[in-house]
Amino acid sequence: MHSARDRIEYDTWLTELEQIADRLDLSSDARSCATELFLGDVPPEDRSKRAVLAASIYAGSLVAGDGRTQGAVADAADVSRLSIQTRWKDRLAAAGLEPPNW
């Protein structure tokens, strides 16, 4: 759980997360997990935030059992699939979760 300060500071990004999740028709569990993954390790550079947001959505959807493909998330988030592919396992590891070995 993250502080209200974090949620206020990153409100624009969390709104973007919800819009992407709407496009993907993600469950509330996937959205919640994606939010926690994103807020758990937000990069300081604005140019990296969109890619990390997309990777958090992808990883959150997997954890919640509401998985979407990297391509679908990339399209909905307007990032490259490679941006997600290179970051999603780090999102899980930063949250203390064991990424799959596939």
UniProtKB/TrEMBL annotation:
InterPro entries reported in the protein's UniProt record: Cyclin-like_sf (IPR036915), TFIIB_cyclin (IPR013150)
Pfam families in UniProt: TFIIB
Protein name: Transcription factor TFIIB cyclin-like protein
Domain Transcription factor TFIIB cyclin-like, residue spans: 16-89
Gene3D superfamilies: Cyclin-like
Spans traversing the lipid bilayer: none
GO molecular function ontology, one term from the record: TBP-class protein binding
